[in-house]
Amino acid sequence: MQIQGQAALVTGGGSGLGAAVARELARLGARVAVLDVNEAGAQAVAAEIGGVAMRCDITDSASVTAALDAAQAAHGPARILMNIAGIGGAKRIVGRDGSPAPLEDFERVVRVNLIGTYNMIRLAAARMVGLEPLADGERGVMVNTASVAAYDGQVGQEAYAASKGGVVSLTLPLARDLAQWGVRVVTLAPGLFATPLMKELPEAVQQSLAASIPFPKRLGHPEEFAALAAHVVINGHLNGEVIRLDGALRLAPR
């Protein structure tokens, strides 16, 4: 699918990898709706790229529906969905005092990263499948965000790894389910990237993390993630696949 002129939705577009994806799609000619629970961040990115911003809680169906309605009113039906929104969190299953990890912490991470991603997909897909097919029969493209933690989860990352592992496992059945309507589904699994959250860590910690990457020995640039996300849209034969973007990194237990 050519990006030029298409309406695109980017969740988590108010910062980090989502903001980089929103900028790249706009650079390539898409009409971008920036969706984020942080409305101020979404508005700032949208103003920069000439897009529109909507507050959107991906775990809330009414919030998502309202955002999709507003984006469609502004830009027309979206054929591109970039699911970038997500949260982190680490909690050892048994604390130093012997107490079990709070179940609420696990539920929150899974609800945002996995259920929220599925919620966006189901509501956006219901609209995409009704669109007129393009020349090659394609109606839409969805790109989801997992993590290398889906494969190499570290100590204390049970919730995060499980949530991202769920996104990985959704990919192929979703692609098979939506194939009859010409909607592709691909997931990206980034490693260590220089996002605002990462930059809050001490410089020495950032350098140590970068040194653990085989090559190149640096944190990933958000623009590299965005370039791959855009390529997935353009390359019509990419479907049902999970792509690691990590410089050959394999996370250690700690």
TrEMBL record:
Keywords: Oxidoreductase. GO terms for molecular function: oxidoreductase activity. InterPro entries: NAD(P)-bd_dom_sf, Sc_DH/Rdtase_CS, SDR_fam. Pfam families: adh_short (PF00106). PROSITE patterns: ADH_SHORT (PS00061). Belongs to the short-chain dehydrogenases/reductases (SDR) family. This is Short-chain dehydrogenase/reductase SDR.
